[in-house]
Amino acid sequence: MTDDDRKLRVSKIRNGTVIDHITGGQSLNVLAILGIDGTSGDSVSVAMNMPSERLGRKDIVKVEGRELSQEEVDVLSLIAPAASINIVRNYEVVEKHRVERPDVVVGVLECPNHNCITTENEPVESRFAVTDDGVRCEYCNTIIRDDLPAHILAE
Amino acid sequence: MRHDHIISATQLTRADIEAVLDHAADIAEDPGAYGDRHSDTLLGLLFFEPSTRTKMSFTTAMKRLGGDIVDMGSVESSSVKKGESLADTVRVVEGYADALVLRHPMEGSAKMASEFVDVPLVNAGDGAGQHPTQTLLDLYTIRENAGFDDLTIGIMGDLKYGRTVHSLAHALTTVDARQHFISPESLQLPRSVRVDLHDEGAEVREHTGLDEVLPKLDVLYVTRIQRERFPDESEYRAVAGEYQIDAETLEAASDDLTVMHPLPRVDEISHDVDGTNYAQYFQQAHNGVPVRMALLDLMLGGER
Ligand SMILES: [Zn+2]
After folding, report:
1. What is the pLDDT of residues A83-117, one digit of tens each?
2. Which own/partner contact pairs does B76-82 have at CB distance under 8 Å and 24+ positions apart?
3. Is B283 exposed, middle or buried (0-12, 13-18, 19+ CB in 10 A)?
4. Of B127, B164, B184, B233, which one is least surrounded by beta carbons within 10 A?
5. How many CB pairs under 8 A join A and B?
6. Strand order in the sheet with A44-52
7. How many Cβ atoms from other residues are within 10 Å of residue B16's Cβ?
8. CA angle, corner A34, sides to A29 and A38, nearest 5?
9. Are A77 and A131 in contact (CB under 8 A)?
10. Which of A110, A124, A137 to mutate to test the interface with B (most CBs of B within 10 A)?
């Protein structure tokens, strides 16, 4: 099977974003981080556990009609550090870049400490500093190292 | 001091600490000289959980500086009971007071509150998080009794939930103290504190028993082990006795040992220690007033 055959499994998009090289099995978490749940009407394709030379298995997400902001893309790095972002206009990839780990992520993760003020009904968003091996709540200092996707805030 | 808000001991540099302690020492020598220092100042006290001592200590400090306090009163009698957010409460009280003191049961509450106000805010304890003014008075007591040079300190008890311990451990790294942590395994330091101490290059050892380290210590800081931290009574009883000291325990200690406790104590320090030269916990509590006077004075723009 050639590379082209594989690509056919996920239909080409006209305008939007292709997120490639997502860590195998993480595509639904990527969608959750991006706040994509299908209700907005965007056409979204997901391919899971595709063979990948670089990653062994990878997921691919294609979002029609939406170009992701750099900020959104940076947050993806927490669960898909190898992901690449392709911005597509009129079926052409016009921009291609890798994700980069941000210094902080705001409003994306829920603090696992139930006694943390950010879990209360206060007008404040969760705020985590991104460290080399995890993230750390800037309010209560709780560290999350494993299982980041479990702490993604529901929209 | 560079800080408008005092949220965490981690924000205090060695220079900040020395500035507050030096000023506190001046104040302690002649408290009367500061009596009209802040006669126009109102300090807002927001205590969302009971803490008579800390509240009285701040009240005394403000009054000794010539100022006064406005007190939210108990949570039961306030609008908080009706579901008002903390962010709203502090924004309202900011209009009444020149500075705020907040005690709240949730971690991160002081940091969040400080983001909503322009007046200086002091964290007087946020859940199991931080208690920086306790740390400053602890440091004052340590400096008075043992000095900061070549200091070896043992911190014993509930290290997991004890916010005074978390604050103090950070601050002790700024004075390069050797720190020994003594606790049951289930109540060891939380990961975030370990990570910080490690990153700060602190010299830290953890123990489950006091015997092996006691003779080396200049200071023994004892905290309470709370019964409710244990799933069942028998587990509590199995460990609790190990972390209680009495005059006999201290026979193995250096004659210069200073014993401290953030109070209130229950039975972790026997009353027969009170009369010994080791006991400094009541003095430690008294030191809260000059230390909080110094901090408030510096925060409110007093000249040294
Ligand atoms: Zn938190």
Report:
1. 999 999 999 999 998 888 899 999 889 999 999 99
2. B80/B48
3. middle
4. B233
5. 54
6. A44-52, A56-64, A16-23, A84-89, A92-98
7. 20
8. 85
9. no
10. A124
- DSSP result, B106-122: SBTHHHHHHTT-SS-EE
Is the confidence metric ipTM above 0.85 for this complex? yes
Contacts of A117 in chain B (CB under 8 A): 86, 104, 106-109, 111-112, 126
Q: Output the six-digit token pair for B43.
A: 């300090």
> What is the distance of C-alpha A149 from the center of its chain?
10
Cβ of B127 and A115 within 8 Å?
Answer: yes
pTM: predicted TM-score of the whole model, two decimal places:
0.87
Nearest Cα neighbor of B19 from B167, B153, B169, B139 is B139
Closest CA to B273 of B220, B236, B237, B225: B220
Q: Where are the alpha helices (DSSP H) in A58-140?
A: 70-76
Cα distance between residue B172 and residue B198, in whole Å = 13
Q: Residues A141, B129: contact at Cβ < 8 Å?
A: yes
